Amino acid sequence: MALGWYATVFAAVFVGSAGVPANPNRDCSVIFACLTPQEGLALAAIVGAPVLTAMLLTTLAITVPLARRVPSPILAGTLSVSITVGLAVVAGGFWQAAR
């Protein structure tokens, strides 16, 4: 069930970014400034693959004990994804503070 949440978010980002028209007055002197939405999404997928893998493994580790205590599989998947996203936000905050 948790994998469904990740797929839903990925699909929503893709649909949202594909529907945004390009700015005609773009400055292409900056690196990655002139990528199409699809190219930007592909780059984000390549860079974000390790993060997504870590989040999926964390979700799996959280789901196993949580599924035994929560009666609904949908609720267990949603709670495990919510906890994982919270942990990812905290880890990102620590990473930003260390830079």
UniProtKB/TrEMBL annotation:
Sequence intervals crossing the membrane: 42-67, 74-95
Top-rank lineage group of the source organism: Bacteria
Keywords on record: Membrane, Transmembrane, Transmembrane helix
Keyword Membrane: yes
Protein name: Major intrinsic protein
Natural source organism: Micromonospora harpali
